[in-house]
Amino acid sequence: MQAALRAGAEALLVTHAPDVRYLSGFTGSSGAVALAGGRAALFTDGRYTTQAKAEVNGLRLVIDKRSPGVQAVEWLAAAGVKKCAFDAAQTSVAALELMKKAVNQALKAVPAPMRRSFFVATDGLVARIRQVKDEDEIVRMRKAAAVGCGLFSAVLQYLIPGVGETQVAAQLEFMARLAGVEAMSFETIVASGERSALPHGRATAAKLPAQGFVTLDFGVLLGGYCSDMTRTVHLGRPSEREWDVYHSVLEAQEAAIAAVSPGVRCSEVDEAARSVLRKAGLEKEFSHSTGHGVGLEIHEGPRIAARQEQVLEPGMVITIEPGAYLSSGAALKARRPGSRTKKGHPVAKAFGVRIEDMVLVTKSGHELLTAASPKDWIEL
Amino acid sequence: MQAALRAGAEALLVTHAPDVRYLSGFTGSSGAVALAGGRAALFTDGRYTTQAKAEVNGLRLVIDKRSPGVQAVEWLAAAGVKKCAFDAAQTSVAALELMKKAVNQALKAVPAPMRRSFFVATDGLVARIRQVKDEDEIVRMRKAAAVGCGLFSAVLQYLIPGVGETQVAAQLEFMARLAGVEAMSFETIVASGERSALPHGRATAAKLPAQGFVTLDFGVLLGGYCSDMTRTVHLGRPSEREWDVYHSVLEAQEAAIAAVSPGVRCSEVDEAARSVLRKAGLEKEFSHSTGHGVGLEIHEGPRIAARQEQVLEPGMVITIEPGAYLSSGAALKARRPGSRTKKGHPVAKAFGVRIEDMVLVTKSGHELLTAASPKDWIEL
């Protein structure tokens, strides 16, 4: 936005649905907010007339058949706006082209070079404001996280060898709905046995094995806000390698949580997790970043990853979710030369472990929002 | 694509996830496909190594930390490509900017004007190919539609006054999961009583009333393909106005289905529904278009709407879903002067009706994919 202001933008156009909801309260899938000179308006279409009237407060409401973005820029042009900031990450090349045509039409009287400089690209102004949650948002996120923890406890009884991953997901999502959630915040991950080696192992028809890990990664949408958590439990007795990898990931996860504090760079939090796994010889097996912001969307800023220089601020809610994913070769390779598998269960199969909490950055450090779900080794 | 070819594009870059899946089989959320000179490659990141190896067949597979789009254009530039088509509707302004920078870097030796003309905007080439389903896709969509019909029959038992809309959704989604679906294809709509007047009334904590409509609009994701259907049933005895509006919507829906045939323009199908509702005095109350294509995505082309000149082709799968949404004032207004409410139940409350089927365009006409769910008046 700094750059947009320097470029003289006197108005802002917002079309990304979560940003529109954040600014206006409108929860429909198709809407735009325009802000200029202290005036603000929400644009949507006829499917949403009743809903928009009920939800939107303090903004002028305009209903029309054309695309909300086109409506919005015409309104801005009519209001005398000559430069308007928009979010380049959330606007398609085609949508911008359509809006440019609308501006060209609406500002016929204005010299062409001025028309051509109407749109000023910004990189997620509203998204950046949304990273820091206010009190009302934090209350909602605490509730969503608490529902998530309750679901984890309740779903353990269904983790039985032979039960399908989708059956586990069915039970989890059913209980979530009965708890009053609007939806799951993303496609539920139930990754069992060798499938636990898939970082994004959405539930399939695969049956839970008699021996092996089950990774549950799920979240609910409650009051518009997302929860997100992961726990990995073990069916049957583990190999020594499985036990070791679990505890390395747990150590990495707790190190990263301990690093969360205002003023700390995101890269430092990532490195806190990564250095533990590096020492454990699992650096390559940790093939993703440590976490991400969460809120109205399941993936928001900040990114908790290497080379992310952004600094944590009180009110941010982030996930901390290191993992280690071992191919069958890596799973065989013992951490210490000469170590044996535990209790005679050799492990040659691929496996993976991920542990994830939601963490609120507070003024003095951090608060674990998913503390109600234990992370100690669970063997079923 | 015609325009892209005329502009000399010799390569195609695809980044929209359903398009990537369609071309490569890869189901991850972050990937790109590049096609040039008979060669094709899929680009993704380390989270998806195992999954991509299992899913992708016949394409070269490249795994790297950078964004798949940037990887892809660098590969194209290295292959000597000078012009590349991309989908302007599915590429953000920011993503294009990043890819332009990568091309500028990769093609340093090439004159600047040639670098600047590297990207050629197209409007959904893959999306247009996807509109026409092949035999394998039609089999999957028939299955998804059949599961949807089964769920509608099964959920009727839960439509009891006092039960919450989210409880109905919970039962529906639970049964869907047990039937083996990957997910719901969109947020389930359970809109009861006055909420039936909301075209997009997602399930809320509201309790089903003793008297009034309940609109159920839902779909499943099965084998990657979406189903989509809507039925509106009535709790208790209807007013004459409710009865009349239901049957007008049904008549409109059946007229539109009857119009579905290869060579027919989408606008003609829309008009078939709209003219029935116009004659019934419900034109303004039908505030959206008649339908949309469905497939890997819940909303695809073609659009079944006014002024849509696109012609239906065998293999297209579309929804036909007219509706009428009456505010409390409109609900009171009787269709015929002097008509009375039925059985002494005056209706002053808002209500709405929508009926939706999935229809396959065949060589000789059409096939109703959701025929297993009756559309006769259901009173519970």
Which parts of chain A are unreliable, with pLDDT below 50 for 5 consecutive residues or more? 335-341
Percent helix range of chain A? 25-40%
Largest interface here, residues on each chain? A-B, 48 and 46 residues
CATH architecture grouping of the largest domain in chain A: Alpha-Beta Complex
Write the layout of secondary structure elements.
The structure is a homodimer of 380-residue chains.
Chain A (H helix, E strand, L loop, with lengths): L1 H5 L4 E4 L2 H8 L6 E6 L2 E6 L4 H7 L4 E4 L4 H11 L5 E4 L5 H14 L5 H5 L2 E4 L2 H7 L3 H21 L9 H14 L4 E2 L4 E4 L19 E7 L1 E3 L2 E2 L2 E7 L4 H20 L6 H14 L11 E3 L6 E5 L12 E4 L2 E4 L1 H5 L18 E4 L2 E5 L4 E3 L12
Parallel strand pairs in A: 1-5, 3-4, 5-6
Antiparallel strand pairs in A: 1-2, 2-3, 7-10, 8-9, 9-12, 10-11, 13-14, 15-18, 16-17, 18-19
Helix pairs in contact in A: 4-5, 8-9, 10-11
